[in-house]
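can u pls check wat happens w/ fe (ii) ion
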Amino acid sequence: MKYTSVHYTPSDRMCDLVSTHYAVLPVMSRFGLALGFGDKTIGEVCGEVGVDATTFLAVINLMLDPAYLPDIATISVRSLTDYLHNAHRYFLDFRLPSIRRKLIEAVNCSRNDVAFAIMRYYDDYFAEVNRHMEYEEQRVFPYVEALLAGAPADDYSIEIFRRQHDRVEEHLSELKQIIIKYYPMGGTNELNDALYDIFTCEEELASHNAVEDALYIPAIERLSAERPKRGGVGRETLSSREKEIIICVVKGMTNKEIAEQLCISTHTVITHRRNIANKLQIHSAAGLTIYAIVNKLVDLSELKLSNE
Ligand SMILES: [Fe+2]
Ligand SMILES: [Fe+2]
């Protein structure tokens, strides 16, 4: 990886970033940014597809300069969660299986005990990465979703994640050393190719971990420090009429349908919805759905039935 102390800004051209640092290509695809952007700036390319440019640049600048200090207050937790989820899929579904295929081609397990041990080491490592990322998918991301909806779970905190979050790339470095030092029949193009991928994957995993440690965890801590105030006040001040409106919204009803059911004007429904958004800091129906489920305003089965 080519490190730099130059930090990119929204007014820099996207083609300059990619041409200088090709290692950013996987980051772009995880944010849903396609190639073919001509001379547009980073801000323009992100803006066109609704990607939060500040969060994208925080990831890029941290990747290119491990000493980079981002402004955590400007990070979009939603955008970063989506990015990390896509990165997990990249490692588990594409990158690690691809290296495994190359390793099998490069080493002959039937005639070499070291080769067999290397493949076993790799498979154990793959399983370890899978456990690491599945924990984040199953435990951390749902906690963050609930936090974004204004109602974090009582039995979990991001401090637990911070304490147990380990450096998942370390064992890959060990495997690299084992192959370099002890594999008796090294030097083939196939093995060199697999080794090269292990080197770059180790860097990608280290960068992924750095994003979680330096951006994601601090951003969630900041969010959770704010939420009890916002969420608490919001829950206290939600009127019973506003709760009724939330229930209607998550059931998929239009403003007109809500107005008819509650015998009020459409204008009043819109005003209530604006007040709800301000109180809860939730602006989407999906976010309100999570809020309504967590706060037991609706039952999940009720929502499923209403969608059928
Ligand atoms: Fe992760
Ligand atoms: Fe992680």
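The chain has 14 helices and no strands.
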